[in-house]
Structures are given as structure tokens and as C-alpha cells.
Design goal:
The radius of gyration is 16 Å and the shape is elongated. The protein is built from five helices and no strands. The protein starts with a helix and ends with a helix. It is mostly helical.
Length: 124
């Protein structure tokens, strides 16, 4: 039964890679106006995007150390993309966005650890 598990891990790794590219592309394109109803929507979007990027490694890598490395590597990605936005028309450098990205990574790690622990308990 290792084959289906390996295939699932490969699929999750591919989804993670595509998600990283998508976040990078969206971060480095000129701002598009998205209608939203509350003032914190931008920070919430940052938080949720980086939570997603931090969750995926826990389901795409067998070794916990590799998963943590993958998840934590999203912090420098978010910082780097914020610095790069200084040079993109219509985009601004924002420390608040960096904080939202980091909070998303932390949230993603907590959610992924809880979900993987629950999954292990249900298998037992």
C-alpha cells in the first residue's frame, strides 16, 4: 500500500509547488482591485495564503523535520516578496503584510500538526 501513499505525497508536493508559484505571481503583479466588505480583508488574505503554504508540507513530506523546514521556509519567502513589491508598480512594501504572512505560517503549522495528530489517532 505504499504506492498510493507515495502518489498522494507527490500530488500534495506538486500542489505546494504550484501554490508557491501562484502566491509569488500574485504578489509581484500590479495590484488588482478586489471588492471586499471589511478593512482587514487584505491581511486576512495574506494570513490564509501563508497558512495554506505552511499546511501542505505536513501532508506532502513523510519526515516531520522536512515538513517543518518547508513550512518555515515560507517566512523568508513572504519577507522577500514584500521587499520585491517595492519595485512593482501599484504595490507597496508592508511590514504589516510580513506579520500577516508570518501569522499565517504559524497558524498553518498549528492546524497541520493538529490535523496530522488527529489522523494518526484515528488510524490507531
Amino acid at each position: 500500500m505504499r504506492y498510493p501513499e507515495n502518489r498522494l505525497k507527490w500530488t500534495v508536493q506538486t500542489a505546494w509547488f504550484i501554490s508557491i508559484i501562484l502566491v509569488g505571481c500574485l504578489s509581484l503583479t500590479p495590484r488588482i482591485e478586489i471588492p471586499y466588505q471589511f478593512s482587514g480583508a487584505d491581511k486576512l488574505a495574506h494570513c490564509l495564503a501563508y497558512a495554506w503554504l505552511a499546511i501542505l508540507p505536513f501532508f506532502g513530506f513523510a519526515r516531520m523535520g522536512t515538513a517543518f523546514t518547508g513550512a518555515f521556509s515560507m517566512v523568508p519567502l513572504g519577507i522577500g516578496l514584500e521587499f520585491a513589491q517595492k519595485y512593482v508598480p501599484g504595490r507597496d512594501f508592508s511590514v504589516a503584510d510580513m506579520i500577516a504572512n508570518g501569522a499565517g505560517v504559524a497558524l498553518g503549522i498549528v492546524v497541520a500538526r493538529y490535523a496530522s495528530k488527529s489522523r494518526r489517532l484515528s488510524k490507531a
